[in-house]
Amino acid sequence: MKPEPTPAGWRAWRDRVLQHEPLNFALTNHVPRVALTLLMGRLSRIDSPAFTRLALAVWRLFADLDLSDAAPADYRSLRDVFTRALRDGARPFDPDPDVLCSPCDAIVGACGDVHGTTVWQAKGMPYRLEDLIGPEAAAVHANGRFVTLRLTSTMYHRFHAPADLHVRRVRYVSGDVFNVNPPALRRIPALFCRNERALIEATLPDGSPIALVPVAAILVASIRLHFLDVTLHLRWRGPHELPCDARLSCGQEMGWFEHGSTIILFVPAHWRLADGIEPGRTIRAGQALWRREA
User: Fold this and answer.
1) Kind of pairing, strands 288-292 and 271-273?
2) pLDDT per residue over 228-266, tens digit each?
3) Distance in angstroms (rounded) separating the CA atoms of residues 27 and 29
4) With 60 as the cut, is the pLDDT of residue 113 above it?
5) At what angle do helices 8-19 and 49-62 cross, to 10 degrees?
6) Distance in angstroms (rounded) separating the CA atoms of residues 166 and 119
7) Is the pLDDT reported for residue 23 higher than 60?
8) Which of 30, 92, 135, 148 is the most buried (most CB within 10 A)?
9) Is residue 174 within 8 Å of 199, Cβ to Cβ?
10) Helix (H, G, I), strand (E, B), or coil: what is residue 268?
11) How is 100-153 classified by DSSP, letter by letter?
């Protein structure tokens, strides 16, 4: 399903509004965020092809939605669109064992070295690993490296194992649902540490630790993790420790968001960002994200 053309005049007006940072910030954060997120969860589950077609038409007025690489499907709800699967072969994963792949389609945000346990969500906006993932996990990933991956609302919402993994534990923390777009990241201190999130602790085949931290945001109704057969959402009271023993192969689906959001990936210091990975770059699931240093 290819995107339908949006009138040029409307598109120009829309883009001006979206690029006006103070207005963008106010419209997406100075609102009843949790109530709107719970409402979106209910609306997304309405089983009605007619309502879904209408909602998609409205959605396309505000975003460039492209479903051309999605697997053929009869969308009966917005949730079906948010959690859509892709055609076979649409996201091949790099098979090189010295590569960690991107777990999702995303826009690269802040990335680089973790200084002690200090990480950056944007220039001049540090946060502490302890506040994001707790002191025990922070000690494991101190002085490592990180990359922030932001999924927009129109992107493919499923995420995958970036390499062969052994997932040992998940820690879920309920929280707020601030927007995670650049205007918010430049204005709200320690935003990721305030939002709903899950810490997925895993090890690579050589035993070295990595962590994936899916962070929810406004209108993200839930985070689904297949290897726990559980859906995490705002009605849970966190934190919750969820032990598990799941072995995943590179590219295997881990779960999905029911809207766009963010995944922060933490790796040991002997991994370096792959060529071309920098803030603002749009990437797809399966592309090389990190390379093992010799």
Assistant:
1) antiparallel
2) 876 665 455 555 788 889 999 999 999 988 766 899 999
3) 6
4) yes
5) 70
6) 25
7) no
8) 148
9) no
10) coil
11) EE-SS-EEEEEEEE-BTTEEEEETTEEEEHHHHH-HHHHHHHTT-EEEEEEPPT
| Closest of 280, 264, 11, 246 to residue 114, by C-alpha | 264
More confidently predicted of 52 and 202: 202
User: Which single residue is written with the structure tokens 């072995």?
Assistant: 247
Q: What is the dihedral of CA 277, 281, 285, 291, to 10 degrees?
A: 0
Judge whether 94 and 36 are in contact, CB under 8 Å.
no
Q: Residues with Cβ < 8 Å from 174, sequence gap 6 or more? A: 196, 234, 236, 237, 238, 239
Q: CA of 65: how far to CAs of 78, 212, 223, in Å?
A: 13, 26, 21
Rounded Cα–Cα distance for residues 285 and 111 (Å):
17
Element (H, E) at 184: helix 182-185
Q: Which residue has the tokens 């829309």?
A: 14
Q: Closest Cα to residue 78, out of 218, 221, 225?
A: 221
φ, ψ (nearest 5 deg) of residue 79: -60, -40
Which residues, including other chains, have CB under 8 Å from residue 23's CB and lie 6 or more apart? 17
